[in-house]
Structure formats: C-alpha cells, structure tokens
Sequence to fold (840 residues):
Amino acid sequence: MAPPAQSQRSQSPSQPSGKSEVSDLKLQLRQLAGSRAPGVDDSKRELFKKVISYMTIGIDVSSLFGEMVMCSATSDIVLKKMCYLYVGNYAKVNPDLALLTINFLQRDCHDQDPMIRGLALRSLCSLRVANLVEYLVGPLGSGLKDSNSYVRMVAVIGVLKLYHISASTCVDADFPSTLKHLLLNDSDTQVVANCLSALQEIWSAEASTSEEASREREALINKPVIYYLLNRIKEFSEWAQCLVLELVTKYVPSESSEIFDIMNLLEDRLQHANGAVVLATVKVFLQLTLSMTDVHQQVYERIKAPLLTLVSSGSPEQSYAVLSHLHLLVMRAPYVFSSDYKHFYCQYNEPSYVKRLKLEMLTAVANESNTYEIVTELCEYAANVDIPIARESIRAVGKIALQQYDVNAIVDRLLQFLEMEKDYVTAEALVLVKDLLRKYPQWSHDCIAVVGNISSKNVQEPKAKAALIWMLGEYSQDMQDAPYILESLVENWDEEHSAEVRLHLLTAVMKCFFKRPPETQSALGAALAAGVADFHQDVHDRALFYYRILRYNVSVAERVVNPPKQAVSVFADTQSSEIKDRIFDEFNSLSVLYQKPSYMFTDKEHRGSLEFADELGNLSIGEAADNVVSSQRVEENDKDLLLTTTEKEETRGSSNNGSAYNVPYDSSTSVFASQTQIESAISNPTTAGHSQQASFGIDDLLGLGMPAVPNVPSPPQLKLNTKAALDPSTFQQKWRQLPIALSQELSLSPQAVAALTAPQALLRHMQSHSIHCIASGGQSPNFKFFFFAQKYEESSNYLVECIINTSSGKAQVKIKADDQSTSQAFSTLFESALSKFGTP
Fold:
C-alpha cells in the first residue's frame, strides 16, 4: 500500500519555511557586513526588518547575532535602533551573546551623534546581565556629564537600572550624589524630573538599611528644593509636574505664609488641560490646608469649578476618574456642591458606571432647597431602559427620603412607583416603602392603602416579597385581607425557595396572630409545622423557637415578637469615618476609584480567595504539617467596614448555623421579656408553673399534633475516608472553582483554646476524625488552617478554611464541597470534631 500523501499547506509569505530561510538571511547579512557600496544601507534595512519580524512572531533568529552586530557599524539611526532592539531581546535570555555586544555598544556610546550615544547607552543598560555590570559604570559616568540633554536623561534612568542590577555598584560609584547635583543644577527639566524619580526610588530602597540614605530622602523634602522645583514647574512636562506635585504634598510648611506662597505658585495649575496635573494640584491644596478649617473650606470652593469642567470634558474613562475624586469631596463637604447639583444629572450617552456614581452624588448633595428638583430628575430615570440604573435611581429617591428632606412629596412619588406595571420598579419601591415605614410610622395609613392592592403573586424578587410580607404582618390590623394573603403564602410554602422570605413569613404570621387570632390561627399552625420540618437550619430553629415560646406563655411570646413600635432614627453607614479619612489621605490614587484604602487591595490578607496560591505557598504544606510557619494576622474588621448594608446582612446571615443567605434583622423582634423566662421556655417548655394540659391547648388551637419535643428526622450519617489524600495543587484549583457551600462561626471551649498553644495538637485531633490538614499558619492569637476530607468509597471532596482567634475563642469556618447536598452533614461532623478538641 502506498503511503498517504502529505497535505500541501501554503505558507505565509511573512513566515520562513524552515531553517533554510534563516540561513539565507545569515548569508546575506554576512555579504553586506563589510560592503560600502551605494544603497547598502537600504538593503540592510530590508534584511533587518525581516529579522525583527521573525523575532516578533517567535521564531528563533539568535543564530544571526554575530552578523547583526557586524552590520551595525553604520551611521544610519534606523539600523541602529533595529539592531539595539534585536540585541536587547536576545541578551536577556542568552547572557553569553551579550558579551559580543559590549564592544560595539561602548564604541557607540562615544559616537559624534548624540542620538546614537543615547540609544547605545540605553541599550547597554537594558541588557540587565549581572556579570556585565563593570562595563556600565564608565559609560554611565560619561553620560551623566554629556553636553546633550538627551544623553543625560538616558544616563539618569540608566543609573536606576544599574541600581536594580547591583545596588552596591551603583552606590560605590557615587551615582546618587551625581544625580542630586543634576537635580539642583541641570538646565533641562526632563533631566531634573528623571533625577527626582530615580533618587526617590533609590533612597527609599536604601533607607531601610542606611541612615544616610534616610537623611538624604528627607533632604529632598525641604524648603529650598521644593521652592526650586515649584519655580520651574511650568517648564516641566505633564508627567514631571505630577511628580513634583506629589513631592510637594509630603512637605510640611513651617508657617502659614509658606502655605499661601505655594498655593499662589500653583494657582494656574488648576486651569491645566491635563486632568492628572489638576488632581495633583488639588491634592496639594487639600493637604496643605487640613489644619486651617476656614481656608480648607475656601479651597473646596476654589477647586470645584476646575473639577466640574474636567468631568464634562474628555473621554468617559477620564470623566469617571475625576468624578470619583469629586465624589470623595462631595461626601466630605456636600453643602459646598449643593448648588451645583445639575452637573451630576445623567446624560443619555454616558456609561452606566458614570451614571451610578452620579446618582450617589445626587443623593449626597440633596438638601431642603434642591430636593424637589433632584427627586423629579431621579424619577425620570426610573423609566430608563437600563434596568440597573432605574433600580439605583429608585433607591436614591428612598435614601433622600431617609435624610428627612421633603418626605411628603417623596412618599407620593414612591407610591406612584408601586402603581407602575414594571416588576423591578415595584420590587425596589416595596423595599424602600418598608424602610420609610420603619422611620416614619405616621405614613403607614397612606402607604398601606396602596400596598394592600398589590398581589403577592406579582412580586417575585425575594427582598421585595420579604418587604411585602413584613408590612402584612406589621400592619395586619389595617389591612383587611392580610391574614388571608399570609395564609395563601403559607399554603405555597414548599414553592418558596428563598429562606429569607420563609423567615419573614414566620414572623409576619406570628404578629398577625396576636392582632387577629381567629383569622390567623390555622395559618400559624401550618406555618409552624412547615417551618419545623424545613430543611434550612435557621428557618427550622426560628419555627421551633416560636412554637416553644407559645407553649410556654402566649403573653411572653407577644412581648418578644410584637413589642411596642420604635421608629428607626438613623440607618447604619456602610463605611466608617476612619476608612473615609484614609481614602482621603490617598487622594489622586487608585484608592479613590476603588473606594477603599490601598492596603486593602495590596496586602495579601485583603486579596481574597483568588490569591490562595500565594497564600498557600507561605503556609506549611504536607500531610502531617509538623511545622507551623508564621504568617500575617488575619483581621476581617476592615473588610466588614467596606461591605454594603445588604452585604453585611448576608455576612451576618452566613455566620449563623451555616446558612448561606441573609437573615433579615427585624427591630420589632427585640426581646422585652426577661432572659430567664425565654431560656426556661426553650430548655423546658412545660415548666415554670405551666401544665402539660395548657401546652397541648396551644397545639389544639393551632391544629398541631406535635409532641413536646418535635422529632426532626436526622440526616443519614456521613462516613469519611480515613486514608484520604489530596495534593496541594488540586486543593488550590478546587478552592478557586468551588463556591462556598457553608460559612459559620463556631465557639471553642476554654480547654480547646488552651490546647491551641501547640497547633499540631489540633491537626492530630482532626486527623483522628478523618479530617486532614493540608496547610496551616499564623501566630497567636490568630491561626489559619486548611483542611480536606473525602467521602467514604467516593471521590467527593470537602475543603475547609478555618480561622481561629484564641482571644475571642471563635472559629470562622468556610466549607466548599464537590457534592453540595452533603455539605450540611459534613459541617455537622466538622463541628462535632472541633467541639471535642481539648477534652480528655
């Protein structure tokens, strides 16, 4: 049989067919290397272009190194540039080839053409080969003294490159002192700017080991240097101006007259066309006047116009960056911008991220004089085709109402939203009406009249349905159909997938029962029976609590579930003032755009689960994990401060009994009964002078046939593999991919805390329960452990992150599982194993 014919594939003309083409190039370059014929430079250009194109697409042309160096003996700058590009690329990966370039680069550093001198010096410093450092000192010294400013500018950056290759060589050659001399005496502003940048980086790195370097770094921030740079600031490029202005922000004037001198020098920088220069100038003004309250307020007035001008000009990305800084200022001084609220109106063609930021600013600047106009504008956005923006605008209207500005008109607008035939508008309006009623109970009559006409079947979003149910329970005496609506919802209990809604439904039915018992008793009985049998732990616990406290004493239950109303005066802020101040200190940086201090997105402990690989690398890895390596302390407080109110509720919910949803906090469920009574009711519902007959009377009233202690079917016991094995790379991959199945907070016994002085004891204890440690770290009082376990006779894995604080005696546990349905069973097993730690 004949061999199969090879497929003929046409090759791209830009790619060589094989080694033959590289060999042809090598031959042609060798022929042109010593030629001085007319037009030879043009031929070299064409060949150089081919070599660079091959190199760019990843073809190895390192074999042409010698020929390329020989052909570089020319005065053609274009050829020089291409040759330097080629040399720089292959010198990094092949230091031996770099030795071949030293002679011709050093020769070019003394060329008559300053452009060639500069390019050669830049290429020489870009080789980044440690054993060639000795060849850099001479050319750099000559370059710093060169008569041409371009060569000096390149030499300054070359000094910084040399420092990163060999810091000792750079310092021993006394290059920092030369740079300082150029900084204060050079006539070219770009050379001065490069000197400033290089010196700051070198002395900052040296300051940790050298007191002299620390003093030199501080010497940069003194009055003569600052005034010298400010007097020349108009000559600098935009980048250099930002560099100088950043240095000025670190300067502390000795008297107030210096502050006004500096601001007068920089006054015209606020009119600059470049947004970076304007923001850097604004930061200088704000930092200098922090201790002068009256002047600081005047600064806000002065910087307002330039920033608003920048927002309305330029690209959306630039507008967003400036708007983010303006947003920070608005939050600090809303009264200054209250008259300029129209600048924050949304344009139809703006991106959603710009619109969202403007909505926040409109909410912040609202006051008695402009609320009507702002709310009117926001209501227009409710019909926006961009649904997320429409939702945000409705929330903004509610936030303004909660600030006590023109509440009458705003309530009317929100009630109009409830009558709109758009599901998402109705959903957002219901949530806001609930918050308004918590703060302004006097508006209940008007609101309930409209809410009563909304069918619960038309509300599908969990938060909106929970808000509607809350109002049905809270104001059931004013809503004629409330018991029957609640009863229909209880009948469809199994069809409701949101645990938040089921929790609200339990509480609402309880409240309605105390206000209209005859109409609600059957619904309450059905709700308690369904709640006790519910698979969700929190729903089950709340239903069981309500059942037991009703059996104990109905009047106590009423005081717990339906106490006298108390209006909410202030809703919690999502950020602490300390966090806001830290962001303000980092003005003109990414912190303002991210709305969090820099350490929260740069330090490892704030990077989140995506940085697990680096984090795991710093911990001790192995089956036994005998050695515990110290790591940074794990503190969640700053993270929590940056969560929104909704996220805080979700976090609070997820830390209770392993539930992964947000447990709604209802202020009306405050416990007014004595703690002793309630504990007695839960621990023994038939004690404290109440007979079994009275207890069973509640069962008969509600139609329940429950025993004194309801029998909840226990899930099948989970069995783990005692010889489970999992390598760290697989653990990392699974940790990134799997969602968090359960998150909970567990309490440790004093004995367990005491035993944690030797963390290896916990590892051995958990291993005895077939839960193995793959990584551990930390130091007192914070320890972090990563555990894994495997289901018996199956390949299903369970991954656990356990953070233990010995001071509080608490353990934060996050569980991820291949099989989500068994995560609760594993959680119970893990909790049981952890609770036995430290016991004899």
Summary: The CA atoms of residues 212 and 312 lie 48 Å apart. The beta strands are 620-621, 742-747, 772-779, 782-790, 797-805, 810-817. Residues 293-311 form the longest helix (19 residues).
